[in-house]
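Re: the request from the purification team.
They wanted to know what the chain is likely to look like in 3D before they choose a buffer screen. I agreed to run a prediction and write the result into the notebook, where they can find it.
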Amino acid sequence: MNKKQKDKLDKILKDKSSGSSEILLNLNKFFVSSIGKKSLLDESVKKAKKKLSHFAAVKNYLSNVEKLLKHGNQEKLKEYLEQTSLTENKTAITIFNKLYKKLPDAKSILTFSRSGTIINVLKLWKEKNPNLNVIISESRPEFEGRLMAEELLKSGFKINLITDAMAGMFVKNVDAVILGADAILRNKNVINKTGSLSLSLLSKHYKKRIYVLASKTKFLNTNNYKLISENPEKVWKFNHPKLKTINIPFEEIDKKLITGIISD
C-alpha cells in the first residue's frame, strides 16, 4: 500500500463525524477503486475490521468482502461492490416511503447526532413538505449534530440547533423524534450515539412517537453489545487525581422505548 492509498484509507477509518452508512459507502468506493489489487484489498479489509467492527453494517459488509476475496473471484467481488452502492442509495427512498405513511401530517421533528440515512430521508421529506421544522440536538462531545445541520442548511432547510440538555424543552412540542442506528440487536434493542436513550425516555414521558431508521445491513444476529470507552479528553481536557472523565460514545436503547424500527 503506497502513501496515497494509505492516507485515503486512514481518512475513512478515522472518520468520527459521519454515520456508519456513509462510512460504508466511502469504504466501498475505496474498494471499487482497488479492484484487481488483491494484496491492497486484503490489507485494507484487515485494517478496517480492527477500526470499524463496532458498526454493524460495516462489520457485515467487511465479512462479505473478505469471503469473496478468499474465493478469488474478481467478477463476483466487483458485482458485490457495485450492488452495495446501488442498494445503499435506494435505502433512503424505501425508508422514507414507510416513514411518511406513519407521519403524513408531521410539521415538526427532532433528531440527534448525524446520520446519512436521516439526511437523505429529510431531503425527500422536504419535497413533500417544504416547511418541515427540523430540530437537531448537537450530540456532544463530537458535535455531529452541527455537521448534520450544516449539510441540511445547504439543502434549504430551516434548522433549530439545540444542546442535548435542552431536549426536554423541545420534545414535548414536536410530532415525532427520529433516530438513526449503528446496530439493531436480535432482540430489537437499538445501539446508537449516547444521548439517544435520554431522548427515548423523554419521548416516552411526553407520549411522542420515536422511530429508528436503519438499513437491513445494521441488524445483528446477537443480543450482546460491548460498551466502548474513547478518549476522555474529548469531554474535558483536565487532569486531577480525584477526577475520572468518562466518554462512552454509544449506548443501548430498550425496544420498549421505541415506537418502531423502519428499515428497507
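For the purification team: The CA atoms of residues 59 and 192 lie 15 Å apart.
Please add any questions underneath this entry.
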